[in-house]
Task: inverse folding
């Protein structure tokens, strides 16, 4: 069974997002060994200067780097960011299936916080993935990623879940 690690900046505070995440985590137990690790978000004021945001992102990057294998090492590291490649659900399913079949595991998905991810984290990732050109709250995006991982497994098994 493939191991999937989702490493997120920030905790889910909203109960409805937490409930949705728990539901997909429960569903995924049959398909993969899933772990979710939350790294505290470095807060900046709403009127923060670029330097303050850069410092916050660098602090988060340092915490992320301690948990990642590094580019080209064991497994696959995918940074979720707007600059990444957009994949359809079928393509995403094929990506997970390919990683599993060639032994490129564990799979790490990195979700940034309110200010995104530091460029250093993106450079170390094997793959940059974008869900959309739209912007989503990172707590909602965690639920969306969990759903897409679940959908990927349902596609791979030929289920009617993906219509």
Result:
């Amino acid at each position: 069974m493939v191991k999937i690690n989702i490493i997120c900046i920030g905790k889910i505070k909203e109960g409805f997002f937490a409930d949705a995440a728990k539901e997909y985590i429960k569903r995924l137990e049959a398909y993969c060994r899933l772990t979710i690790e939350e790294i505290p978000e470095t807060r900046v004021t709403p009127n923060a200067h670029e330097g303050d945001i850069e410092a916050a992102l660098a602090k988060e990057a340092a915490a992320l780097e301690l948990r990642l294998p590094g580019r080209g090492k064991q497994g696959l590291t995918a940074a979720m960011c707007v600059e990444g490649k957009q994949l359809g659900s079928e393509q995403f399913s094929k990506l997970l299936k390919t990683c599993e079949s060639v032994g490129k595991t564990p799979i790490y998905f990195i979700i940034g916080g309110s200010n995104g991810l530091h460029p250093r984290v993106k450079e170390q990732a094997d793959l940059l993935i974008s869900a959309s050109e739209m912007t989503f709250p990172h707590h909602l995006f965690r639920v969306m990623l969990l759903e897409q991982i679940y959908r990927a497994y349902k596609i791979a098994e030929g289920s009617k879940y993906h219509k």
